[in-house]
Design brief:
alpha+beta; two-stranded antiparallel ribbon
Amino acid sequence: MELPAAAGEFAPNQLQVARPGHLGVQRFFTESGRPFCLYAVVSPARQRLERLVGDLSAVLATVRFTD
């Protein structure tokens, strides 16, 4: 599973609480037989969305799921 998502998948209608200028993505997935939910919110007003999603992807690449 690719985490978090492509920049084009972030949208205001993905937020649980709408906030002006914020975009979100929510993913449900199973890893090592356990369910997870990733909920990510970005505010691209000061930086480009692609850069924010790239930074988030770099952080998430360090996450490891173990039994």
